[in-house]
Give the backbone structure.
Amino acid sequence: MSGPLLTIEDVAVELPTPRGNLRAVDHVDLSLEAGRTLGIVGESGCGKTMLSRAVLQLLPKKAKLSGRVMFDGQDLARLDSERLRQLRGRDLAVVFQDPMTSLNPVLTIGTQLMETIQEHLELDASAARARSIELLAAVGIPAPEQRLAQYPHQCSGGMRQRIAIAIALSCEPKLLIADEPTTALDVTIQAQILDLLAREQRRRHMAMIIITHDLGVVAGRADEVAVMYAGRVVERAPTPALFKRMHMPYTEALLAAIPKLDAAPHTPLPAISGRPPDPTRPLRGCSFAPRCRYATGRCHEAKPALTGAERPDHLYACFHPIRMAEGVGA
Amino acid sequence: MMQLAVPEAPLLNVDNLVVEYGLGNKTVHAVSGVSLQVARGETLGLVGESGCGKSTLGRAVLQLRRAKSGRVLFDGEDLTAMEGEALRKMRRRVQLIFQDPIASLNPRRRIGDIVAEPLVIAGVKDVAERRRRVHEVLSAVGLDPDLVAGRLPHEFSGGQCQRICIARSLVLNPEFIVCDEPVSALDVSIRAQILNLLEEMKARFGLTLLFIAHDLAVVKAVSDRVAVMYLGRLCEVGPSEQLFASPAHPYTALLLQAIPVPDPDVRPAESVAGGEPPSPIAPPSGCRFRTRCPRADQRCSAEIPELREIAPGQFAACHHPLA
């Protein structure tokens, strides 16, 4: 393998607002190798979606992007719009949260699928049609031939997300970004869609980024997890290490705040008090310090860097990391 | 331990409720003969996926959607037979909290006025008394009345708006609150705050809750008993712990299996029962879950299963319940 497929280097995104510049993404470094899955987890406003938009070069017009996004040996920020257009949809595909708004309501499913296929692969209409049927069957849509003539509104939410995935997979992308792919779906359908994504990823040896607010979604399905808070990656580790021996107090608090199925009813939840900082205000110390139960004076004064003290693949940004030694647990 | 069995005289008794919507010349069978009871001081969780009729049921309980047939007895009185002034009077005792806290607050009105509104409608004329009550409930939900009362909803986050909605629902001293997905729109860290707050308010004001949600873990965290709904009918009702530990209805088991667990050692169950819920316009005959059920047979399509007691306090509507 010749290095990672995707490298995000010191990427920052600022959005101008009437109240001043909003730090949506605050100097993030990440990398992803072919065939691997990275989970990006965080609450709303943490910058996870903006980061994915920075990768796709689909930021709002007024946004200011700095840093480098290297994909498959190319610096995406330096590509002209024509090259980018060729790349997106072909090598770099995306599935959004809401399949109703990401599909065009006035075009049939067949038209939308075949459009993408014919745009990027040199196939004639009948070959594109055959491939569309094959793709719909692969994502578990019954009677795919009939579906081609239907419109998005004639399909359920789960079906629409399957179709969006079929379009994303149509040109055998090297990287699939799934931004909250199951948040709009019911829990039984969510499980089906996550299974489908995992299956297709294995089959195609494609790299995948799953963006979610739900730690449960990434637990069994990502190789590595990056936790974001207030625009920064605050902890990043191989999935088992992150869940077993998290070092960042925010990760611990986030996991603790989720109601557990095996807890007795009426067990009070360890809630995180307060709320995330205002991203338009300058912040001196650790962004989580005001809500952190381990915070000391130092945390309010200086920003902890993302470092890996124990092992190079487990990074965290905290002056007072928890569970540092094996066997020391809360 | 809580008294888990259904007591003699429940505060809320929903009896064979049927709610239907017209859709062109078709009928949506939203709630098809649901019966359930909620004891005074109890929290009954109502779970199901979108379109299963759980919100419609909640609204029909409050008479915000009138039932086609069946009865809703609140403290012994039939709400479905009430109209006009009598119903308005009764509504002081029952309140509703919605999913989207920002959308359920009027953006142009000040928080103090929003929370006082139910008092105005209820005819509390004394301004000082209204102010006193508003102060009381805002403090109860953890907001500083002096800082908050004069401000507008857009100045608050989603979690704070939900606190305001909860304050508003408490201002008339109700006995019963229907919480319709009260934390679904909130982030994990805020969700825990609001769930804890609801528990605290329930204890402090002696409330009875019908807690509607799609998230089983959230429902379990607050409920004494849980009712599972699928396509307009109840599948299973039982004490929370028991129902989660040994579900009797295959649908309850499917729901539990589908939840992503935040633990990398728990491998996600490959391919939980496939398919999607059928349309409530043309629900399947017999058991409505049969089209997705691995245990379904001839009898399931011919005969509607009745809720029957599987274990003490646990009822399931299934011809082939899980052991």
About this structure: The radius of gyration of chain A is 21 Å. Residues 232-316 of chain A form one domain. Chain A touches chain B through 47 residues (CB under 8 Å).
